[in-house]
Fold:
Amino acid sequence: MLLACWVGAGCSPALVWHTAHDLNPGLPLGIEVFRGSGDGLQGVYARLDQNANPALAWRVALAAPGAQGMTPLAFSQSLPRQPYVVVNGGFFDASNSMSLAVVDGMVRAAGVKRLSRQGQQFYPARAAFGQFESGRAEARWVSVAGEPPVLSAFTQAPGQAGGAPSAPPAGGVPWHPQTAIGAGPMLVSRGVKRVTAMQELFDAASGVGVTQRAPRTALAVRADGALLFIVIDGRSSHSRGATLDELADMLVALGAWDAINLDGGGSSAMVVNGAVINRPSDAAGQRRVRSVLMLTAR
Structure:
């Protein structure tokens, strides 16, 4: 049993996590799945420890531009070798990924370079999570510019005064991860809760519902290098959903060093060994998405 919050810690909500003994026997060394409950919430998370098993990796998969998206389960079933774990990825519209995606060192989706609000143009540097060839993983605020896309990373959100910059942000460093997914906002940076929704321009028009209790998906790295893929159910009688502040608190309690929010709502889903193990909130079941994260053999 693992307590995500404990008496006197002052954090909320208080989820209690248990090893999913029914799921883990089918998983390799280095991947372990947990179920959590408490405070009106239900959730699941998978932990990837590449130090324990260097033969494992996480990857990003995308639907072809303009093609119909797939559910996380359909993504899993479409591959010659079934992934151990699949979760939904970044934001999307009807035909494209709206979040950064890097596959094998190549930018496959640039995400949002520029946004318009009330006639004004903004250039957000949004949270992205990447892993380098060395194995080091991190979350950074990342801006995308040019064609082919050039990625610039920041250790602080450029829009510190509130709101995204009205010109392309300067002062970033080149960012060249081997694998990366963008979405946002940032939830945890260097072990401290940092929900920079305003700086990343996740306002009411974004649809993220920053203060609403909703299904959520997030990706984190601990200080020891282990990666956490977490899904919190919501909009149902069995689980009320979480605000972004609550999600960040959960991740800090689980030891997150860096963490970002991924797409949520009806998109939030986790597949383990070919079976959906959470309860997606859409009445029809899993939603078709345009990107997923997969835990696989290298």
User: Anything to note?
Assistant: The chain has a mean pLDDT of 93. The chain has one domain: 53-224+246-291.
